[in-house]
Amino acid sequence: MIAPTARRGAGHAACHHGEILQGVFLDATGRRCAGLVTLPMTGMGSRAEFTRRPGTPPEQLTVLPGDRTKAARAAALTVGECAPRRREPPCGGELRITGDIPVGLGMGSSTSDVIAVVRAVADSYGVRLAPGTVAKLAVRAELACDPLMLDARPVLFAQREGRVLEVLGPCLPPLVVVGCALGGGAPVDTLDLPVRTYDEDDVRAFERLRALLRRAVATGDAALLGQVASASARRGQQLLCHPEFDTLAGIGRRLGALGVQIAHSGAVAGLLLDPAAPGLRHRVRGCVRALESNGIAVTRVFTTFPPLPTTKEFPSGPAHRGGHRPARPRTPRRPARLPAL
User: Fold this and answer.
1) For 248-298, how does the pLDDT look when each residue is reduced to its tens digit (9 = 90+)?
2) What is the mean pLDDT of residues 7-24?
3) What is the pLDDT of residue 322?
4) Tens digits of per-residue pLDDT, 45-69?
5) Is the separation of the CB atoms in 174 and 150 below 8 Å?
6) Which of 23, 27, 52, 230 is the most exposed place for a label (fewest CB within 10 A)?
7) C-alpha closest to that of 302 among 284, 328, 278
8) 3-state secondary structure the chain
9) Taking the alpha carbons of 104, 106, 107, 108 in that order, is the dihedral positive or negative?
10) Is this model's pTM higher than 0.90 or not?
């Protein structure tokens, strides 16, 4: 009898740059649930390779690096999902994960690992899982997840339930983002953050921001999106308490930014600029100089639309590269020629 051969699959998942909006919202039934809208960012990500060994017990699973416990759970759960579809018994295998996403900065590093693993295991079975199934597996693996399985579509996502509360539109309005890291780029331990309770006034405020963001996406209104992101960031500060936040917001106001955005469970933040505004090159350079002169580490400059400008890799973080967002008919083309800083 010939022994079963190993079968290999590969998967990849991008990261994000914190949130545009995060809070508590009402679902279609009127029930409260936590939700968020992330700011997508391509370039960095997690990659996974899974080599399954038919005939081995499913608990015989090797993971490199060995500390990726969430990814290991995701692999076992995905084997349990895919093996019955192929009418095969679950089996073990070897999982290898690589990536370049900083950990603990609120960029979705753990979710990126998990989704890359889910896709790699599914690929080894020749199975294509729907985004909703990937989301459910990710939540089971790590209790809450970011909507990275949906690629770059702007959605209000219930991170603890793995479901979409609302599709806001096909793509975000065109933005140039000057990214930075608050707190010296030190990782934020979300388990140390106080648990906040929300009352009816909070829910009504978040629902108003949701309606404004819906309108901003539908009309391509980057200025309105900046207002929503700033309001959400100020609310997030009630838990995060970044001492540099007021400085960041002040720089944005002084240099004509549309607003600021932050990771509500991390240290990354960004100044949001209008790519159609005059003097964009001067504004971007001014933001970089102002942030660095105030001790705020600049990480990357990127856009929410293709083609992307060349970006410089700053000492505090890798540059953003590439992009796959669909172009809007009214997308200005001038920022595409923005040179490296």
Assistant:
1) 999 999 999 999 999 998 899 999 999 999 999 999 999 999 999 999 999
2) 96
3) 34
4) 999 999 999 999 999 999 999 999 9
5) no
6) 27
7) 284
8) CCCCCCEEEEEEEEEEEEEEEEEEEECCCCCEEEEEEEEEEEEEEEEEEEEEECCCCCCCEEEECCCCHHHHHHHHHHHHHHHHHCCCCCCEEEEEEEECCCCCCCCCHHHHHHHHHHHHHHHHHCCCCCHHHHHHHHHHHHCCCCHHHHCCCCEEEECCCCEEEEECCCCCCCCEEEEEECHHHCCCCHHHCCCCCCCHHHHHHHHHHHHHHHHHHHHCCHHHHHHHHHHHHHHHHHHHCCCCHHHHHHHHHHCCCCEEEECCCCCEEEEEECCCCCCHHHHHHHHHHHHHHCCCEEEEEEECCCCCCCCCCCCCCCCCCCCCCCCCCCCCCHHHHCCCC
9) positive
10) no
Sequence length of the chain is 341
Residue 95: what residue type? L
Whose tokens are 């209008």? That residue is: 274
